[in-house]
Amino acid sequence: MASQLHKTKGIVLRSVKYGETSLVVTVFTGLFGIQSYLVNGVRTATKRGSGKANLFQPAAILDLVVYHNELKNLNRIKEFKWAVIYQHILSDIKKNAVALFMVELLNKCLRQPESNPDLFYFAEDAFLHLDMAEDAVAANFPLFFSLHLPVFFGFRITDNYSEKNLFLDLWEGKFVSQKPDHPAFLEGKQAEVTSQLLKVMQPAELKIIRLNHDFRRELLNAYESYYALHLQDFGTLRTLPVLKEILS
């Protein structure tokens, strides 16, 4: 089966140096889901190669022409260019930390190389909103993204919070009226704010949810635990300690 050429957008998730001049990049593509590509000659000091490796920074959104053969684990990229030139994500320390957290979360959730255009659109839209977000929105963005991403992987939290259902059972993924008989639950303000965050449909709405740094950190820890309960071999997020440090 010969490789076919396809045009697709892609979000770079990670890139690893390969040989003297090349990269192996993991890209979440609009057409084929998560894919690995070998990109030759982008790390050379020649005119042709100079500066090209920086297109493959995590969170970069690219227009790609790729060779695709589903029998291969590693395909090649024929052409690449910026689809979006970020104003802030690659240069602003706080927004970059949030973007890297989002990239790692995506990378851990995407196990199978299958097309998921709705998820691709959600992720692309999220990075574009983060890039232009004001500070109050950017600070809450990791919480928003963490809660809305599971919708695409079948373990979303049901927002049935009420005066009766005051406990968020992280095993069940819903609010319940009795304190669960296991430690994986949220109560009080943490449960209430989680319900508020679940109601947010447009990231700009995040600025009306006022939280302090310590409270955000506790919620991020809780949401990391939620993923670990529902995704096998999820482990821990390497970007989370950095994010918590920078957002303080």
Short description:
This protein has six helices and eight strands, in the order E-E-E-E-E-H-H-H-E-E-E-H-H-H. By secondary structure, the chain is of the alpha+beta class. The chain has two domains: 1-85, Beta Barrel (OB fold (Dihydrolipoamide Acetyltransferase, E2P)); 88-248, Recombination protein O, C-terminal domain (de novo design (two linked rop proteins), Up-down Bundle), CATH 1.20.1440.
Structure description:
By secondary structure, this protein is an alpha+beta fold. The chain has two domains: 1-85, OB fold (Dihydrolipoamide Acetyltransferase, E2P); 88-248, Up-down Bundle (de novo design (two linked rop proteins)). It has helices at residues 93-109, 117-132, 135-148, 188-199, 213-230, 239-247, and strands at residues 4-18, 22-29, 33-39, 61-68, 74-82, 167-169, 174-176, 185-186. It has a five-stranded mixed beta barrel. The model has no long low-confidence stretch (mean pLDDT 95).
Approximately what portion of the residues adopt beta-strand conformation? 15-25%
Give the number of DSSP strands. 8
Q: Strands of the biggest beta sheet: in what spatial order?
A: 1-2-3-5-4
Fourth-level CATH superfamily of the largest domain: Recombination protein O, C-terminal domain
User: What is the C-level CATH assignment of the largest domain?
Assistant: Mainly Alpha
Can you tell me the overall shape?
globular
Helix proportion of residues, in percent? 25-40%
The structure class reads alpha+beta
Largest sheet: 5 strands, mixed, barrel
What Rg is obtained from the alpha carbons, in whole angstroms? 19 Å
Number of domains: 2
Instruction: Tally the helices.
Output: 6
Low-confidence stretches: none
